[in-house]
């Protein structure tokens, strides 16, 4: 029986033609997250995109689903039995890494403070600035995003160390070592970047004790999952003068409640989880290409890239 491919990706006409040329015997249906019907879900054997997690319960024929995001934790517990799950990990690495670098340089040059002065119509010098030249950058999570960010920092003269569970050389890092070295390396780092996924082992990994081990003038970036960071401890420590600055693109929960103390810390830069996603056409194109490449593998009976389940 031919596959029924339900495609929720943001594809253009040329990309639709390519999908159909890869699987000419399949039925190809294109829909949106909020416009997909129960009939389409029930018929699908292959799906690409970002459906609502509850929609997966309506897909008894599903053989394989590839999410358009790097993270897949919202789908792991609701996949139909026996269905394969793959992610789009790596496709938004450049987007997130560029956002992290922009945030870091903004902190180094005190741009948030100068923006505040601009709004107040005040011409004032905020004093000392920072550079990445000869800085020590510690990245927790040496995956696609962490490696891309480290490579950008190296290009500006920084020394980069990545922490990960499985050791081995990773492009972009001067050194990759185990997560067991975290406590030892925190006092060494001028920049600590969190690019870890959400998991039981990463929950509040960056807690008060570890934040206190950082240099008083270090900078903290968080762009993986908000659950990795103890936000209350960070707010209290920064209000007490700890850290040069911090930039968070992810929080827990999201949206960040209006009552959160994070909003009012002058040297803390907040963005609403916008580092990745499909905001760059480069990312969208990479996501579509990965789905097409994996479709070829699926039809040939080969191992799929970014297999989660």
Strand content: 15-25%
Question: Largest beta sheet, briefly?
Answer: 7 strands, parallel
Number of strands: 12
What is the ordering of alpha helices and beta strands? EHEHEEHEHHEHEEHEHEHEEH
End-to-end Cα distance, whole Å, is 23 Å
Structure overview:
31% of the residues lie in helices and 16% in strands. It contains 10 helices and 12 strands. The protein has helices at residues 13-22, 38-43, 73-76, 93-108, 111-119, 144-155, 182-185, 208-213, 231-239, 281-300, and strands spanning 4-7, 27-30, 46-49, 64-67, 84-86, 136-140, 159-164, 175-178, 191-194, 219-222, 245-248, 268-270. It has a 7-stranded parallel beta sheet, with helices on one face. Strands 2-1-3-4-5 form a 5-stranded parallel beta sheet. The chain starts with a strand and ends in a 9-residue tail after the last helix. The model has no long low-confidence stretch (mean pLDDT 96).
List the helices and strands and how they pair.
Blueprint: E1 4-7, H1 13-22, E2 27-30, H2 38-43, E3 46-49, E4 64-67, H3 73-76, E5 84-86, H4 93-108, H5 111-119, E6 136-140, H6 144-155, E7 159-164, E8 175-178, H7 182-185, E9 191-194, H8 208-213, E10 219-222, H9 231-239, E11 245-248, E12 268-270, H10 281-300
Parallel strand pairs: 1-2, 1-3, 3-4, 4-5, 6-7, 6-9, 7-8, 9-10, 10-11, 11-12
Helix pairs in contact: 1-10, 4-6
């Amino acid at each position: 029986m031919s596959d029924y491919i339900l495609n929720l990706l943001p594809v253009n006409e040329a990309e639709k033609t390519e999908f159909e040329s890869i699987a000419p015997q399949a039925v190809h249906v294109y829909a949106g997250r909020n416009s997909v019907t129960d009939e389409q879900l029930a018929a699908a054997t292959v799906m690409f995109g970002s459906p609502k997690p509850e929609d997966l319960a309506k897909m008894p024929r599903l053989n394989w689903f590839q999410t358009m995001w790097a993270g897949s934790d919202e789908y792991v517990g609701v996949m139909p039995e026996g269905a394969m799950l793959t992610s789009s990990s790596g496709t938004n690495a450049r987007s997130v890494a560029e956002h992290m670098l922009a945030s870091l340089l903004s902190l180094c040059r005190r741009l948030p403070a100068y923006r505040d002065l601009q709004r107040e119509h005040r011409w004032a010098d905020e004093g000392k600035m920072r550079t990445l030249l000869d800085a020590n950058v510690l990245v927790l999570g040496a995956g696609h995003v962490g490696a891309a960010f480290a490579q950008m920092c190296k290009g500006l003269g920084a020394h980069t160390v990545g922490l990960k569970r499985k050791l081995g050389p990773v492009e972009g890092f001067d050194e990759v070592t185990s997560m067991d070295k975290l406590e030892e390396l925190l006092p060494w780092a001028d920049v600590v970047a969190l690019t870890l996924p959400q998991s039981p082992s990463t929950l509040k990994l960056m807690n008060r004790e570890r934040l206190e081990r950082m240099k008083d003038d270090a900078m903290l970036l968080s762009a993986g999952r908000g659950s990795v960071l103890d936000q209350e401890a960070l707010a209290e420590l920064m209000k007490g003068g700890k850290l040069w600055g911090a930039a968070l693109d992810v929080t827990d929960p999201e949206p960040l409640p209006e009552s959160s103390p994070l909003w009012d810390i002058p040297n803390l830069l907040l963005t609403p989880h916008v580092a990745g996603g499909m905001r760059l056409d480069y990312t969208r194109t990479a996501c579509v290409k990965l789905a097409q490449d994996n479709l070829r593998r699926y039809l040939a009976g080969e191992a799929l890239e970014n297999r989660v389940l």
